[in-house]
Design a protein that fits this description.
alpha+beta; five-stranded antiparallel beta sheet; three-stranded antiparallel beta sheet; 12 helices; 8 strands
């Protein structure tokens, strides 16, 4: 019987698998290196005639390197926080556990979009005729993602867990709700193609409060919790959130006196989570490092 895999970072990772993503990243690194060598060789072969398109010869390999690095950082790297990191963050917000988030993904997407827009703009001013218009239009179309991610980088990422409920801050929404007003917690796809935990709120929940931050976002009626941005194993976080929702007696460990071991230790999380809580999770994903 096939064992469940660990929770992936992105929807594409879930679709094609991590080994293939490694191959994609390696291929892009190779192509970036080849593009660099070819552009340098082309320029040195006839420096005088190549000087008018020097900008393109620099921009193309630079863009390819940016894409390769972006793919590597946003799909293969896994940021992980430890107990000390969480304790330090939680000390600033008494009465609960604060998981600090990272802005790596939107930052890298912004860099990639800027690099692509710059490359298209250089091509537009270098070539002539209809192609100049085509490259210019492509550069302008990238202004939307650039502005969106500039706005995104201004917003914090964090998840605050306390005995009464949870509070989440993402690039498009600040929201909080009590545990008893949570209808379900499922896996889905969030912004930037990331795998998130979809916290659905009961209709008409009086404890639910929200503040929409991003003008380009549409309201979905759920709170997206991104484990990869928070630096924790997504399966462990899913187990913990389901447990706190379904078993009120476990919420006392969220008072902030110490970091709940279940957020970081797969053995402890699996051993102390009742089967009716863990079964729907462990049938889909397995915690990193767990032996089942």
């Amino acid at each position: 019987m096939k064992q469940p895999r660990t929770m992936p970072r992105s929807a594409l990772d879930l679709t094609i698998g991590r080994p293939l993503w490694v191959a994609v990243v390696v291929l892009n690194v190779i192509l970036a290196a080849v593009a660099t060598v070819l552009c340098v060789w082309t320029y040195l072969q006839d420096t005088a005639s190549m000087r008018p398109i020097l900008g393109v010869l620099i921009a193309v390999p630079a863009l390819w390197w940016v894409i390769a690095v972006t793919l590597w950082l946003t799909t293969l790297t896994r940021r992980r926080v430890g107990s000390e990191d969480i304790s330090r963050a939680s000390a600033s917000v008494p009465g609960g556990i604060l998981l600090p988030g990272s802005k790596l993904v939107p930052a890298m997407i912004l860099v990639a979009a800027l690099a692509a827009a710059s490359t298209f703009a250089v091509a537009a001013v270098t070539v002539g005729g209809a192609w100049s218009v085509v490259w210019a239009v492509l550069a302008v179309l990238l202004l939307g993602p650039i502005v969106s991610h500039l706005i995104s980088l201004r917003q914090p990422r964090r998840l605050f867990l306390h005995p009464r409920g949870l509070g989440s801050a993402t690039f498009h929404l600040d929201a909080e709700v009590h545990w008893d007003d949570i209808q379900s917690i499922d896996v889905g796809v969030g912004m930037n193609n990331s795998i998130v935990l979809k916290v659905a709120v009961r209709p008409g929940a009086v404890t639910y409060q929200e503040r929409w931050r991003h003008p380009f976002s549409r309201r979905r009626g759920v709170i997206d919790v991104d484990p990869s941005a928070l630096g924790v194993d997504g399966t462990l976080l899913w187990l913990a959130l389901r447990l706190y929702r379904l078993d009120p007696s476990t919420r006392e460990e969220l008072r902030g006196d110490r970091v709940p071991v279940r957020l970081l230790d797969p053995r402890e999380a699996v051993a102390t989570t009742p089967q009716h809580v863990s079964a729907p999770v462990l049938s889909v994903f397995s915690p990193e490092g767990a032996i089942r």
